[in-house]
Amino acid sequence: MMSAADGVRPMRADARRNRERILLVARAAFAERGVGCSLDDIARQARVGPGTLYRHFPSREALLDAAMAGWVDDVCASGAAILAEADDPLEAVRRWFSRLLDHVLVHKGASAMVAAMGDPSSPLYASCSRIREANETVLSTAGDTGRLRAGVEPDPVARLVLGICALAGDVGMPRGEAEAMLEIVHRGVTR
Amino acid sequence: MMSAADGVRPMRADARRNRERILLVARAAFAERGVGCSLDDIARQARVGPGTLYRHFPSREALLDAAMAGWVDDVCASGAAILAEADDPLEAVRRWFSRLLDHVLVHKGASAMVAAMGDPSSPLYASCSRIREANETVLSTAGDTGRLRAGVEPDPVARLVLGICALAGDVGMPRGEAEAMLEIVHRGVTR
DNA sequence: ACCTGAACACCGTTCAAGT
DNA sequence: ACCTGAACACCGTTCAAGT
Q1: Is residue A50 in some structural domain?
Q2: Are A49 and A75 in a shared domain?
Q3: CA of A121, closest CA in chain B: separation in Å?
Q4: In chain B, what residues touch A153 (CB-CB under 8 Å)?
């Protein structure tokens, strides 16, 4: 458990406001212009100096992680919800893939997450791992019912699905094409 | 048929030499530092002014396409060779995926090709289409023997396999992980 | 016809000076 | 403690001047 006594001193009010404004602008900028967009622009739009952006987020990845935290929460919660609702575990897997695609197509940044999956030093690693765990839960439920192929490891599947979502988001692929790819993966892992 | 009379006038000798030197340097640079590496560096290493690079290759994609032409030739020829050698069409599909991975892991640039697949105006579109055709040939041979799942379209498969290769190349993924993903796709399209 | 290299605009990053 | 904005290095791109 954390508390104020652990050294998590509250930020000065203006710093907190700046931080929030940067995040708000960054989320919109990443979604509209992609995760490679100019950080200077973000700082300008948030009406702070470039140094202020760097003080709060020392790297593009750090900013990316903070900006994505919200939808990563949502998508992980979706995983649990899908399992609870669906009666067919195979359909649950399909819905899980599709939900992941939904989020990535809007918010982008999945390519950075895939890159971070193998790199514990990345600021995105924690978010990455949360998605990986959600994926593991959905898949293992299907596995327990015997509907998964033998020898299917959840992590390559997570990488693959995230990778497809990343590709679709970065390239601006029509949704249907991305779905077709996910369907191939679905057939490849289930029986 | 093309001939000198069609307006394909020969280049001046120094221009031809410069062009070749730029391509030689570019191939090494893309392979070592990735397809996003500095074009200024390439010009410097090839000992030409930046303007000369732009005269020969008006965009990064144009340079990329010229630099990749060689291995695209090779990989397409591989497709035919694999079909001729292999007795099992399923094994041929597997080998085809694997061969594509080999080339991309060395030369990079597959992400740009995936992006170009849906964009006929891209300088990479022609190379892209050649790979797509090779893929179509290998897959349809397997399809003729009834070893392909019903409703499998070759193009989404091409995009998917190229996409995985691109991901593996860009992220520096261990070969085994990429193979694991390709195996899932293989199971997804065959029976 | 082709090459050169200076020039420009833009971007990420740092840091001394301020409050 | 935090912010500002000037400064620096780097890169893509253009173009006037040369041969």
Answers
A1: yes
A2: no
A3: 14
A4: 180
When scoring B97, B160, B177 by the number of chain A Cβ atoms within 10 A, the one with the most, hence best to mutate, is B160
Distance from CA of A172 to the nearest CA of B (A): 8
**Token code pair at residue B171:** 């992220």
Q: How many CB atoms are closer than 10 A to CB A80?
A: 12
CB contact under 8 A, B187 and A188: yes
SS3 B190: strand
A98 with A182, same domain: the answer is yes
What tens-digit pLDDT sequence spans chain A (191 residues)? 444 445 567 888 899 999 999 999 999 999 999 999 999 999 999 999 999 999 999 999 999 999 999 999 999 999 999 999 998 999 999 999 999 999 999 999 898 999 899 899 999 999 999 999 999 999 999 999 999 999 999 999 999 999 999 989 888 889 999 999 999 999 999 98
Q: What count of other Cβ atoms lies within 10 Å of the Cβ of residue A172?
A: 11
Is the Cβ pair B115, A153 closer than 8 Å? no
Q: Which amino acid is at B109?
A: G
Q: How many separate domains does chain A show? A: 2
Domain ranges, residue A182: 69-189
List Cβ neighbours of A14 (8 Å cut-off, separation of 6 or more).
none
